[in-house]
Amino acid sequence: AKKITICLIPKKKGLPYFTSCAAGAQAAANDLGNIELIYDGPTDGSPEKQASMIEQYTLKGVDVIAVSPNDPNVVAPAMRKARAKGIHVIAWDADGIQDARDFFVNQATAEAIAHGMVDTMVNDLGGPDIKAEVAIVTAYLTAANQNVWIEHMKSHISQKYTNLNLVAIKPSDEDQKLAFKVTQDLMKAYPDIKGFFGISSVSFPGAAEAVKQAGKSGQVMVTGLATPNSMKSYVKDDTVKSVVLWNTAELGYLTVKVGEALANGRLNQGDTSFDAGKLGEKKIVGDQVLLGDILVFNKNNIDQYDF
After folding, report:
1. In sequence order, what are the residues at sequence separation of 6 or more whose Cβ sits closer than 8 angstroms to the Cβ of residue 156?
2. Per residue in 95-108, pLDDT tens?
3. Using alpha carbons only, how large is the chain's radius of gyration in Å?
């Protein structure tokens, strides 16, 4: 098969979450044998730098650009230009503007992720009848995937858990120190708060550390999305009961498989399933290739995972 060059662009290079995705992507490249994988992204999370990188790799003439957009509106023009040049463009981890990409490689449906986080929090707090104030610490207010999760979380709370009171939604700009400070400030502003959702791999450990340092481990629950390795210490000291995520290496693996199939004409609009090799058959809903279900890590199983 001809050599395919795939450029994988994360929201922010250097984060353990994206590093583990990149490891899975490289494993797929190795298994396929005909892939040159480029992993590159902004180290500060700047969507403008993401857009500039897309333009750079468009000029270099790569075959596929796979991007996790930090701000879909900012990067969309560069993504559209790449497509106009005949480059296959896919979104992964977070979706882009629909007409700016061919497919979205989605870890799970937004609804499943949002409901999973809320159900996990309720369970950790003590059950569906619990009365509690909770807050969300997100990454960027422009992060499309997190904004969709938040809308589904709010809807799920209003329909199923009316005793939960969502008092605040605050950004942390993918900065763990800022997530720590935001959580500290929210505990001061809402002294009766009982739970924090950290819905990025950076905001979750930042929020957990703030609760731990406040001496409120076990009194104020923290749950959300992060790699199990980054949360093991918090799970083991009872600051965190549950961690929600998906297999990040498999997300990277699937992204490269999708990119290679697009470049070789084996994946087309209208397909309803995708053969992902060792990952098995994956469902395609519309123009989204779904990795699968969420995983919940706790004391009983977290040591079984290493990413």
Report:
1. 114, 115, 118, 119
2. 999 999 999 999 99
3. 19
